[in-house]
Amino acid sequence: MIPPGATAIVGAAESTEIGTVPDVSSAGLAIDAAANAMRDAGITAADIDGFTCGYFPVADMSRQLGIFPSWADNTVVGGCSWMFQLRNAIAAIHAGYCSTVLIVYGESGKSTRRLGQSGDAGQRGGIGQQFDMLHGGGQAAATFTLPVLRYQHEYGLSDEDLAAGAVSQRAWAVDVPRATLREPTSVDEVLDSPMVAWPIRRAMCCLVSDAGGALIVTSADRAADYPKPPVYVLGTGGALEGGPMSPAGVREPLRPEFIRTSGEAAFASSGITHSDVDHLMIYDAFIHTPIFGLEGLGFVDYGEGGHFIAEGHTAPGGKLPMNTSGGGLSYAHTGAYGMLCMLESIRQVRGEAANQVPDVDVALCHGWGGYWSACATLVFGANAP
Amino acid sequence: MTSRQAKTLDMAHPLIPVPTPETQPYWDGCNQGILRINRCNACNDAYFPPAPICPHCSSTDVKFFDASGEATLYSYTIQQKPPDLWGTQGPRSVALVKLLEGPMLTSSIINCEQTPETLRLDMPLQATFTSFGETTVLCFEPTEEQQ
């Protein structure tokens, strides 16, 4: 097992602009974010010997950045790919394959429709393309959300309580200058927004944005040499279940094993307990995913996640601040939000967030991939144990 | 593959399923109006989607068989603006359907009103097939007793 705090994030940045960024390709956003992260860490490409980028052929991107890595990874499992890549990078550093890894992400999800990007789970002849995509119309809002109605039916979660999640996320976004949607909203307004895929309405769906992000991770013993305080990686988890284009392969959709597996690994490897978590990110591709995350990670019992959010425990002033950037629903969501999700956790541990939670010592970040086929869990800390 | 076939593939709508040699028996079944899925000869589990290995016990001693076509409705959404491919005038269901034999799959409930009142969770369904050009696709409909 890799000891908690053996590695640390020493560079972290988003692309200079996020939201609507016309005339920049996915690769352009990634390069901009990489430059910002290297600046943040006070290093150049020459200092990097490990590289991963996910949505681009790895040599396309490393060549453009002038990085000549001795270790590379390009794991693509959907939106949490960069979380998996961070986990892999930590292992590679621990194994001695490399010392300093740059993890790069960019996605022009809105303006150029993903120009120059690869990694399509819907490729012809793939299992998702053959058996899922036609029925879902290729629409995440109609497919990823399939477990919602069953959840409401089994646990008696009303439409109003489901909608409350979008209201608390917006309440966070109000104070975040880079968030796309900053007007306060209400349960009525969410339920009056246009129906997209009953019972899912537009205000229950993530945004479609342009953004990039990048991280630099190195061993803890090197981390002190960088300008910013290190954000230690205390523990990690990850798991896959089902296929990329539908939740149909998740064996128990209301009690998914992959979430439990990932969460348990993150808690065990970090040595933390739930009460240690000062700040929480759970990737909100759609309104229900934080509910399933809270339950699968063990913050609440099965069936309680929706009510927990509706009662305001994750909203500003609540006991478990969650998705403090506004999340995919209000901040930005490019298509793959995992990098942006991690960057908010890292800002919180650094004390740099727009909605800074006081004294964040431990931040937990959980992300998803596919229309529910992968997840990853990361525990970041201000201090190494 | 001839260049003519390749061109046809390239021009196909990206949502039209493209079979592989491993899944072809399933698609042949659809063309014949039969739901043909896999069963493992070693552990006897039925599974979906088609693959030349059992996802439960890793045996490659597997076969295709004709499933009952009986299923229940596990969960669904009603897509408000279906892709043109479906050619329907209004909202349509996207469903998780649980086969009598065990596997869950993504499908569509057709031949009935696309409303929450008609689409009741756990309702019994039967397999039916619908065509998109030369491709025949598995869907489900309420059982005859309900129609």
Tell me what the structure shows.
- The complex is a heterodimer of chains A (385) and B (147).
- By secondary structure, chain A is an alpha/beta fold.
- Chain A has a single domain (7-117, 206-381), classed as Peroxisomal Thiolase, Chain A, domain 1, CATH 3.40.47.10.
- Helix content of chain A is 34%, strand content 18%.
- Chain A has helices at 26-41, 58-65, 81-95, 127-131, 133-136, 140-143, 147-155, 159-173, 187-192, 220-223, 257-270, 289-296, 305-310, 327-330, 338-350, and strands at residues 7-14, 50-52, 71-73, 100-108, 195-198, 200-201, 210-219, 231-240, 279-282, 362-369, 374-381.
- In chain A, the strands form two sheets. A nine-stranded mixed sheet of chain A has the order 3-2-4-7-1-8-11-10-9, sandwiched between helices. In chain A, strands 5-6 form a two-stranded antiparallel sheet.
- The model of chain A has no long low-confidence stretch (mean pLDDT 96).
- Helices cover 12% and strands 35% of the residues of chain B.
- The radius of gyration of chain B is 16 Å and the shape is globular.
- Chain B is built from two helices and eight strands.
- Mean pLDDT of chain B is 91; it is low at 1-10.
- Chain B has one domain (17-146).
- The longest helix of chain B is centred in the first third of the chain and has 9 residues, at 3-11.
- In chain B, the strands form two sheets. Chain B has a five-stranded antiparallel sheet, with helices on one face. A three-stranded antiparallel sheet of chain B has the order 2-1-3.
- Chain B is mainly beta.
- The interface between A and B is large, with 39 and 37 residues.
- Strand 5 (195-198) of chain A pairs antiparallel with strand 4 (70-79) of chain B.
